[in-house]
C-alpha cells in the first residue's frame, strides 16, 4: 500500500478534482496521509489566478521538501501556464498540466508501488462531495489567465456526474457541491442545461442536499431560480461575481453586463428566492479604477448587502489584455481600497448573521474538535453561514446534517445549538 498526500490550492473546481483523485487512490488500495514525510508521493494541485497564487504554490512546494517530501507531482493551472517556474524546484518529479488531468489518476498511480491489496470499502465521513461538471472558459476577460490555464469549455456527461454523486453518497456525504469554471454554461445538447442536471441529480434519492458553486450573471436564468427556490434540497445560496460596480471598468474588463444589470438581476433573484444568501467577489485596483469608480463599486455593494464578499487586488498576468497597461492603480492605494472593502464586507457578514438569530438551519458538520470546554462541531448552514455548535448531540458525525438554532455570533461565525421543536400542550 503506497501513501499519498494531496494538497490543493485555489478554486472549488480544483477541490473537486483533488477529491475525485483521492477517491480513486483509496479505491485502488492506496492510503491518504496529510504529512509529507511518510508519503511515497505528494501531489499538489495548483492555482495561477494571481501572482500571489503563484507565490503560494512555490512556497508550499518548498515547505513540503523541507518537511521531508520524497517526491512531488505538481498539477493544474500553474503547470499549464508556466511549467518552467516549477520543473527545477527541489523534489519535483512530474508536471501534470490541466490538459492531462483526464488521466492523471492513472499517471499518479504509475509512480507508486503497487498496493498490497485493493480496498473493499473507501473511507467514510467525507463532509462534502465536490463534483466537477464543467471545465474551461471562453470568456477571455481582460484580466484573467483562466482561459489559457483551463482551455475550451467542456461539460461532463450526465451519467458520469451521476456516478460521481453516487460515489459521494456511498461515503455518507450529505452535501454535494456542483463545480465548474463556468458552471452556468453546463450543456449537453441544445435543451439539457444546468437546471436539467440539477433536477436529474435530485431524483437519485433523498438524504442529501445540493449546493451550486459560482455562476456568472449572464448565465443565470430566472426560470432556474424559480425551480431551485421550490426545492428544499437545493441550498439557498448563489455566488454571483460582481468584479466592479463601475460601468467603464466593467467594459474595460470585458464583462458582459452593467452595474444596473447586476442590481436588477439581484432584485429578481431575491423576489423569486427570498431565502437565498447572495455572495459575490470584486477586483480592486484594476487599471483605470478612479476614486469615483471605486465609490461606484461601494455603492452597488451597499445596495445589495451581500452575505459575504471576496475582495481581490488586481494582479497583472502575462498573456492577458490587461497586462502592461500604464494606468495601473498604485499598490498603496489598491491596498487601502482593499482594506476598506474588507471592513465593509465584515460588517455585512456580521449583520447577516445577527439578523437571523433565533432561526433554525440545516447545519452540515464538517469537523469536530475537542477543547477545554468540550466538543465543538464546526460546519456550514444551507445558506453558507459558517457556524460552531458546542456540545453536539451524541453520535454526531462529520458529513452529517443536523437541525440547529442560531443563538448568537462569535468572531464572525454563527453560534448554534441543537434545535428542539416546542412541545405541544
Describe the fold and architecture.
The chain has a five-stranded parallel β-sheet with strand order 2-1-3-4-5, sandwiched between helices. Strands 15-16-17-19-18 form a five-stranded mixed beta barrel. The chain contains twelve helices and 19 strands. The protein folds into three domains: 3-109, 3-Layer(aba) Sandwich (Rossmann fold), CATH 3.40.50; 129-354, tm_1862 like domain (pyruvate-formate lyase- activating enzyme); 360-418, OB fold (Dihydrolipoamide Acetyltransferase, E2P), CATH 2.40.50. It is of the alpha/beta class and 425 residues long. Helix content is 32%, strand content 25%. α8 runs parallel beside α10. A hairpin with a 4-residue loop joins β16 and β17. Residues 117-124 have low confidence and may be disordered.
Summarize the entry for a quick read.
The protein has 425 residues and is of the alpha/beta class. The protein contains 12 helices and 19 strands.
Compile the SSE list and pairings.
Blueprint: E1 3-8, H1 12-27, E2 31-32, E3 41-46, H2 51-66, E4 72-76, H3 77-81, E5 92-97, H4 104-109, E6 129-135, H5 146-150, E7 154-155, H6 158-170, E8 175-180, E9 187-188, E10 192-193, H7 194-202, E11 209-212, H8 222-229, E12 237-239, H9 247-253, H10 259-272, E13 277-284, H11 291-304, E14 308-313, H12 331-354, E15 360-371, E16 374-381, E17 386-390, E18 401-410, E19 413-418
